[in-house]
């Protein structure tokens, strides 16, 4: 059955004659199996090629026929050593794929400096076949642009996944470490296929139990499964663990007993997991413990843990998603205010992980002002793959354009072209460490991600972590071809749907720079009216500030002055409503209801127009998808069709509820031609 379990690694047969053409390139396979990574690479190629070509290639020791695929490193493979290829600049994880001749016979070589590079190359080669790319004259060189390409699981020990919409956690803690669900291996294969090389197993709202011997053993068992696939395990660490599981009276990072506790804990973990990646820490944010509980700084806390893992080559990833207990004048400013003064004060094995925007994974946010503002501290990007604020698993929203928009945003801190991508890949500030994190959307659902299209968000995240300069559209094409079909009349409409889908969500939820208007705490469905409760920034009225005079959050120099956290040219543009891109208008400005927008429509009319446009787009997706019936297996087609129906119903809910609510302020009629709420 087509239940989506295979993800994009479907390896279904290439039809007829075409398959014969491809088969000629890979009838024989020269690939070692001397190490676990080599064995896994060879197994993947045999599996993939058998599936795609309908016949299993012959495993050979050398090139003794036409159409040989040669895979390995100069050290592990004599035929590769003999080719004397230039691989130095590929690093440990890079690879080349080239069409060559060996003793006059046509062959294809996948070569790397290390086994893991060869594995990445093998997945790339399979992708070429899966997407029906030409393979006659290959000359590909690839190396990742970032070092750490990581998933963050927000998985709790009781298997609940915070903000997870794909069932319970795939980590079956109860049966670990002895029972290793085959799913763990498939997880590793999927991640390796897109270059993900690190995973944080547990929620940043961490349980201290995760660091007890019993759970360290369980994490070690998972690390053993992932290791051949080049994936390192990290753990989220609860800052107060020395008190909770260590019996200490304090977790003060400057207290010698606390420092010793963490150093001993690190030693213990490294005994079980020799290549343990390190700790991810959420501190002094949303009620989590942290160094500020003891009057210390984030740097004090991060450095203490960094010292503990340093002897083992470990890292500490410290999250910048912090905000204080007191009601802020503008929550958007807090991370910048707390972290910029700490630039240069972190150990060299600390990275600071920054969400793409300053509020919280909204359907659209301007890029976080920290990007470009900490030249001496390696900043990691944190994207959210799981769609906490974008309709969970039932709303179709391809996040490629969201990720791309952030990465392409120009911080201008070193003049034009100082994009966020260049901050993240380290080229702008010459960071020694680089990386990207994605909050996983993975769970125990058969299709892993809660919906078929949400698999694309895992996929595009991985591809962009590998190379933040890739195009979201190209990646959507790739994924669609691997996941659904290579027929142009299927690929094109699906890619079309995907590319506009996130903008549609922005339109029907939070158009024109509005943000954080979702239902309280669950964040599903409209709640622009949410007010009251424990803190102002956990309401909606705090963010939209609608009155009878207008709407929007004034973050200009006359308002909260958040604009001044950006480089001067960017700040000047955001400070001026006329120069602010309209998609951020109400993020930065409070404007009157009759403010003239770029379309010529008054703001109120434009707002209503956007809501309707979002709903209309979903209707269009349903139409397109219905037209694909019979072109996609019935099982997946039916589920997507049903989810799109849910999405359309709920897009209308968003539109109608939002318009009705904001109309109580604007006191204006619906513009002519707009359908009244149903
Ligand atoms: O977006 C908020 C989520 C919390 C999450 C927090 C964070 C893990 O609503 O569920 O907690 O962000 O990123 O720390």
Automatic annotation (TrEMBL):
The residues covered by the Glycosyl hydrolase family 67 catalytic domain are 129-448
Which intervals hold domain Alpha glucuronidase N-terminal?
7-125
What is one Pfam family matched by this protein? Glyco_hydro_67N
Alphabetically list the UniProt keywords: Carbohydrate metabolism, Glycosidase, Hydrolase, Polysaccharide degradation, Xylan degradation
- Its Enzyme Commission number? 3.2.1.131
**Gene3D superfamilies, alphabetized:** Alpha-glucuronidase, C-terminal domain, Chitobiase/beta-hexosaminidase domain 2-like, Glycosidases
Keyword Chaperone attached? no
**Keyword Secreted set for record:** no
- Domain spans labelled Glycosyl hydrolase family 67 C-terminal: 450-673
Output one GO MF annotation: hydrolase activity
* Coiled-coil residues: none
Q: What reaction(s) does this enzyme catalyze?
A: Hydrolysis of (1->2)-alpha-D-(4-O-methyl)glucuronosyl links in the main chain of hardwood xylans
Q: Which family does it belong to?
A: Belongs to the glycosyl hydrolase 67 family.
**What does the annotation say about its assembly with partners?**
Homodimer.
Provide the protein name: Xylan alpha-1,2-glucuronidase
- State the organism named in the record: Lysobacter panacisoli
* Lineage, highest ranks first: Bacteria, Pseudomonadati, Pseudomonadota, Gammaproteobacteria, Lysobacterales
């Amino acid at each position: 059955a087509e239940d989506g379990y295979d993800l994009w690694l479907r390896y279904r047969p290439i039809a007829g004659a075409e398959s014969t053409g491809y088969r000629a390139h890979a009838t024989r396979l020269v690939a070692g199996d001397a190490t676990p990574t080599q064995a896994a690479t060879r197994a993947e190629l045999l599996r993939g090629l058998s599936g795609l070509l309908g016949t299993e290639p012959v495993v050979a020791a050398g090139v003794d026929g036409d159409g040989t695929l040669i895979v390995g490193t100069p050290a592990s493979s004599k035929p590769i050593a003999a080719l004397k290829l230039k691989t130095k600049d590929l690093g440990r994880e890079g690879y080349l794929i080239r069409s060559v001749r060996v003793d006059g016979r046509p062959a294809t070589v996948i070569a790397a400096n290390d086994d893991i590079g060869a594995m990445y190359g093998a997945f790339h080669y399979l992708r070429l076949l899966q997407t029906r790319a030409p393979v006659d004259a290959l000359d590909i060189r690839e190396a990742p642009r970032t070092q750490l390409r990581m998933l963050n699981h927000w998985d709790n020990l009781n298997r609940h996944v915070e903000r997870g919409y794909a069932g319970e956690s795939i980590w079956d803690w109860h049966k670990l470490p002895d029972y290793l669900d085959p799913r763990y291996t498939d997880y590793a294969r999927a991640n390796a296929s897109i270059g993900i090389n690190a995973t944080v197993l547990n929620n940043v709202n961490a349980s201290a139990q995760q660091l007890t011997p019993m759970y360290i053993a369980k994490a070690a068992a998972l690390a053993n499964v992932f290791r051949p696939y080049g994936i390192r395990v990290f753990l989220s660490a609860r800052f107060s663990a020395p008190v909770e599981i260590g019996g200490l009276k304090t977790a003060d990072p400057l207290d010698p007993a606390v420092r010793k506790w963490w150093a001993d804990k690190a030693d213990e973990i490294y005994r079980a997991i020799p290549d343990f990646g390190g700790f991810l820490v959420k501190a002094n944010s949303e009620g989590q413990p942290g160094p500020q509980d003891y009057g210390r700084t984030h740097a004090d806390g991060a450095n203490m843990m960094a010292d503990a893992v340093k002897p083992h080559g470990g890292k500490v990833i410290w999250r910048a998603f912090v905000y204080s207990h007191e009601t802020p004048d503008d929550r958007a400013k807090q991370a910048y205010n707390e972290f910029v003064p700490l630039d240069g004060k972190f150990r060299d094995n600390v990275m600071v992980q920054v969400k793409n925007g300053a509020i919280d994974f909204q359907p659209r946010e301007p890029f976080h002002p920290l990007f470009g503002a900490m030249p001496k501290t390696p900043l990691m990007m944190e994207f959210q793959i799981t769609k906490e604020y974008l309709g969970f698993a039932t709303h179709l929203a391809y996040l490629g354009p969201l990720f791309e928009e952030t990465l392409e945003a120009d911080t201008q801190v070193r003049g034009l072209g100082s994009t966020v991508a260049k901050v993240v890949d380290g080229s702008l500030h010459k960071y020694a460490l680089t990386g990207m994190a994605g909050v996983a959307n993975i769970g125990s659902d058969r299709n892993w991600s809660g919906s078929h299209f949400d698999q694309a968000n895992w996929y595009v995240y991985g591809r962009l972590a590998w190379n933040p300069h890739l195009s979201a559209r190209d990646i959507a094409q790739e994924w669609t071809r691997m996941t659904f079909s290579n027929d142009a009349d299927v690929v094109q409409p699906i890619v079309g749907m995907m590319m506009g889908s996130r903008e549609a969500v922005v339109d029907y939820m939070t158009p024109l720079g509005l943000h954080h208007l979702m239902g309280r705490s669950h964040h599903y469905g409209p709640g622009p009216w949410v007010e009251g409760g424990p803190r102002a920034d956990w309401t909606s009225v705090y963010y939209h500030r609608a009155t009878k005079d207008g709407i929007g959050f004034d973050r200009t120099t006359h308002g909260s002055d958040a604009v001044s956290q950006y480089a001067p040219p960017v700040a000047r543009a955001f400070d001026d409503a006329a120069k602010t891109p309209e998609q951020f208008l109400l993020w930065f400005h409070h404007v009157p209801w009759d403010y003239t927008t770029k379309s010529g429509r008054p703001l109120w009319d434009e707002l209503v127009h956007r809501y309707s446009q979002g709903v209309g787009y979903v209707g269009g997706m349903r139409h397109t998808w219905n037209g694909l019936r019979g072109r996609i297996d019935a099982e997946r087609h039916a589920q997507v069709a049903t989810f799109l129906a849910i999405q359309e119903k709920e897009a209308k809910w968003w539109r109608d509820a939002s318009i009705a609510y904001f109309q109580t302020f604007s006191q204006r009629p619906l513009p002519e031609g707009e359908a009244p709420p149903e």
